[in-house]
Amino acid sequence: MNPLTRHFPLYGLRLTTPRLTLRLPDPAELAALADVAADGVHDAAIMPFNVPWSEAPPAERAFGVVRHHFEMLGRIGAERWAIPFAVFHGDGVVGMQDIGSREFAITRQVGSGSWLGQRFHGKGIGTEMRAAILHLAFDGFGAEVAVSAAHVDNPASLAVSRKLGYRENGTERVTPGGKPNVLQRLLIDREAWAENRAVDVTVEGLDDCRDLLGLPA
């Protein structure tokens, strides 16, 4: 057990699927995650993120991953939180999947974001890691709604959402990197999640995190 778990219980939160483990990384694992980002997370011809962090040079991408990880952890509290899970597959880390909310006790809504090392694309990992955090949201946290979004020219991300049962929830014009694009908003409620769930997920360490995240008992 990570010794920090006694003081920061999110280090004991773990999600397990048939192929993946999602949990907070230790320093060496966070360094490996930064290396994955430095190696590339998508084709250079597209920009899947509203903030084009992935266009930075490799060393800057790696630094940004580490900084963002600690920024997210530093903001966690009962009224606002985002958990930056590292995603482990086989012998190492392959990407990052986050889940977050504001005023969860009132809204019962979560949002999510993710990225996956480019060399791990096309293996169904993106679907499985999103399924894991949807299970955590609905079965673990007691969420009623989960939202996500993807640019309309990002068919892979949109396909993951459709496969898991999300429905379209309006669009928004955005300007990633100063270039026009359209963001497709997506939503899935508890009923749609229950009808479409197809991945077995085990959650460990959640009860110790409830006070920190302001979750119902």
TrEMBL record:
* GO MF entry, a single one: protein N-terminal-serine acetyltransferase activity
What is one GO cellular-component annotation here? Answer: cytoplasm
PROSITE patterns assigned to the protein according to its UniProt record, in alphabetical order:
GNAT (PS51186)
Which residue numbers delimit the N-acetyltransferase domain? 20-189
Is Ligase set as a keyword in this record? no
The UniProt transmembrane annotation reads none
The record's keywords, sorted A to Z, are: Transferase
InterPro entries noted in UniProt: Acyl_CoA_acyltransferase, GNAT_dom, Ribosomal_N-acetyltransferase
Keyword Secreted carried by entry? no
- Pfam families under this entry? Acetyltransf_3 (PF13302)
Q: What is this protein called?
A: RimJ/RimL family protein N-acetyltransferase
Q: Which organism is it from?
A: Phytomonospora endophytica
Q: What is the lineage of its organism?
A: Bacteria, Bacillati, Actinomycetota, Actinomycetes, Micromonosporales
